[in-house]
Write a structure and sequence with these properties.
Length: 414
């Protein structure tokens, strides 16, 4: 591994994880690597901003943004600063990523190996594993379908094995842990100021169009919160706006089908009673066409009400739980036994064919609907990850939307 200087960009908003990450990197950095850390204070309130300012040092710079510009805006500001700083590599990192001692060395070794083979490398990314399901791949790059515009992730949901996961080429990478050269950024430009979501995919598309190659490597691994455990409400505005805006710019032929598929997801949100989310999606459609972008604080959205699992199930006589992953079924059945409740758990994905899953869901759904009609105080729990995928409306006197987080189950009422 050749000695080098690495400019590391870590956006930080609303938490101090970046400070912990900076300490970890200082301790684990090999002697032949000069690591320059940049923590982008993304418009944090004054008490938190003071904590970041207090750790500034020769090897750790704090860049203060007066307003929250999202991950995309923070990465953009950091990338522009990297172009003014002598360095060999630029490393993009999410502050909530959980690193290993091999995360950086794995990226760097593979980058230099690929370049030594004469490949024009644009970026190399780490395999992303979950924090709840720690051996499950949640992101390993992917491609975009040129006809439908849908993301086609590689290896998502598979069990990770370092011994069998070979470095291979992809069309896009997640910016949770991405290593590139400053020359690449200078050639294609930094991230677009899109606040959050699709910023890394849009940038990777420009990198590929410029003739560079993108790679994912199993020699570098991070753990990152599963997307199901993150808010599924206000973020949908950026999912729609940035996704369609990027398609219009880079893959316009896929735009009509992509819009139709997203309209179908909007219908599912309406069917499940998430009218506020459907409204934000409508705003995203509008701004994707006009190019307008709202910041997080400008969105017409108010947080939904949260409720404890104990309180929600306390008066229930029958519970229907709809999940995305089959692997979560046993855990929820155990919870039903713990509360001494009768219920039914439906997993959308069984690991078999799509048609089999659809027919199985339809049968289970009809039976659950019947139970809800005859049972008093029946309740429905719908996993957030199923909101835009579950194709059947549900009759229930009480309903809530659940997500698994590293701190337990979170329930939301709309």
């Amino acid at each position: 591994m050749t000695p080098c200087r690495i400019f590391t960009i870590i956006p930080a908003f609303g938490r101090t994880d970046a400070i912990v990450m900076a300490d970890f990197l200082r301790q684990q950095c090999p002697q032949n690597i000069s690591l320059h850390l940049l923590i982008v204070d993304n418009g944090n309130p004054q008490p938190l901003a003071e904590q970041f300012a207090a750790i500034a040092a020769d090897d750790c710079r704090i860049l203060r943004l007066e307003h929250n510009q999202g991950g995309a805006g923070a990465f953009r500001a950091g990338m522009l600063l990297a172009l003014e700083t002598p360095c060999d590599f630029v490393w993009l990192l999410d502050d909530d990523a959980e690193l290993t001692p091999e995360t950086l060395t794995g990226l760097l070794t593979e980058y230099q190996r690929l370049e030594a083979e004469g490949i024009r490398v644009g970026a190399v990314g780490s395999v992303q594993l979950g924090q709840i399901h720690r051996d499950t791949i949640t992101s390993a790059g992917g491609q975009l379908c040129p006809i439908t515009g849908r993301y086609q992730p590689y290896c998502e949901g598979q069990t990770f094995s370092r011994a069998t996961f070979a470095t291979h080429e992809v069309h896009y990478l997640a910016a949770t842990s991405l290593l590139t050269r400053p020359e690449v950024i200078r050639h294609v430009g930094p991230f677009e100021p899109m606040f959050i979501h699709c910023d890394d995919w849009e940038w990777c598309y420009r990198v590929g169009a410029a003739g560079y190659h993108l790679f994912i490597t199993g020699q570098s691994v991070i753990h990152h919160p599963e997307w199901e455990s993150k808010p599924a409400d206000w973020i949908v505005y950026y999912d729609i706006r940035n996704y369609l805006w990027s398609l219009r710019r880079h893959a316009p032929k896929a735009l009509p089908i992509a819009r139709l598929l997203r309209r179908l997801q909007q219908l599912f949100y309406l069917m499940h009673g998430r009218k506020k989310i459907a409204h934000l999606m409508q705003l995203g459609f509008k701004h994707a066409d006009s190019g307008q972008l709202l910041m997080r604080d400008e969105l017409p959205w108010r947080p939904s009400k949260h409720v404890a699992l104990d309180a929600f199930l306390k008066s229930a006589s029958f519970v229907t739980i709809i999940l995305w992953h089959q692997s979560d079924v046993d855990q929820w059945q155990q919870r039903l036994r713990q509360y001494n409740l009768k219920g039914q758990v439906i997993a959308c994905r069984s690991g078999r064919s799509f048609l089999f899953d659809l027919l199985r869901m339809a049968g289970l759904h009809l039976w659950a609907q019947f139970r809800h009609l005859v049972a008093k105080q029946a309740v429905l729990l719908l996993d957030h990850s199923c909101l835009k995928r579950y194709p059947f409306p549900f009759i229930a006197t009480r309903r809530a939307f659940c997500r698994e987080t590293t701190h337990g189950v979170e329930l939301t009422l709309d």
